[in-house]
Amino acid sequence: MRHLKVERYDAVVLVRLHRPQVLNALSADLLAELLDTVRPLDDDPEVGCVVLTGSERAFAAGADIREMAGKSAAEMLAEDYFGAWEEFADLRVPKVAAVNGVALGGGCELAMMCDLVIAGQSARFGQPEVKLGVIPGIGGTQRLTRLVGRAKAMDLILTGRTMDADEALTAGLVSRVVPDDRVLPEALAAAATVASHGRLAVRAARDCVDRALETGLRDGVRYERRAFHGLFATRDQREGMTAFLEKRAPRFTGR
């Protein structure tokens, strides 16, 4: 692989974006490599979580401007440019973003596709596309608004300004802020914790939380309740509750 580095830590897979010469700008080739890497993990019973990270300088500085600058509107429409990123967002394996440095434009959108975002104190986030005469195109106007609210999203998207990690935490964009040198250890530890739980329950929980952003309260609660009921058909539910009553650690199998 040219643009990624992949490491395995038991049930956790670490994926590093590796285009240092362009601060991990998101190109079509990088996306293809990323999907080829993570797509099989969705069905791998030995993988419980994925950690996505970049470098100390940049998680990802945005989409690859050089790659798209010369394209016409017809070409963008014909290619459904950026459309394939939704396949990454739709993967059911839990994803943790470990963010150091800048996460701008597509980099911020990529972080928002993950389930947890752990940021270093010097990390910066933003959607500066308006400065290039365009708008966010990988879900930024939609996910950012749902995560931080209309007022903050309008502020960031219309001015193109960036926000630091503390503001991002307060706004609800990131899950935790830690010292820069602790970002990856914290992300790996969080991923290991997620991976230690029942795979079916974790995926059901992800689905329900995502559904909360897409539906009304009554329908969301009904969806949650049905998912809760369905988990009583799994071995993991029986093992988890039996282990609790027997005062021992559960041994989940993902079934």
TrEMBL record:
<protein>
    <recommendedName>
        <fullName>enoyl-CoA hydratase</fullName>
        <ecNumber>4.2.1.17</ecNumber>
    </recommendedName>
</protein>
<dbReference type="InterPro" id="IPR029045">
    <property type="entry name" value="ClpP/crotonase-like_dom_sf"/>
</dbReference>
<comment type="similarity">
    <text>Belongs to the enoyl-CoA hydratase/isomerase family.</text>
</comment>
<dbReference type="InterPro" id="IPR014748">
    <property type="entry name" value="Enoyl-CoA_hydra_C"/>
</dbReference>
<dbReference type="GO" id="GO:0016853">
    <property type="term" value="F:isomerase activity"/>
</dbReference>
<keyword id="KW-0456">Lyase</keyword>
<dbReference type="InterPro" id="IPR001753">
    <property type="entry name" value="Enoyl-CoA_hydra/iso"/>
</dbReference>
<dbReference type="GO" id="GO:0006635">
    <property type="term" value="P:fatty acid beta-oxidation"/>
</dbReference>
<keyword id="KW-0413">Isomerase</keyword>
<dbReference type="GO" id="GO:0004300">
    <property type="term" value="F:enoyl-CoA hydratase activity"/>
</dbReference>
<dbReference type="InterPro" id="IPR018376">
    <property type="entry name" value="Enoyl-CoA_hyd/isom_CS"/>
</dbReference>
<dbReference type="Pfam" id="PF00378">
    <property type="entry name" value="ECH_1"/>
</dbReference>
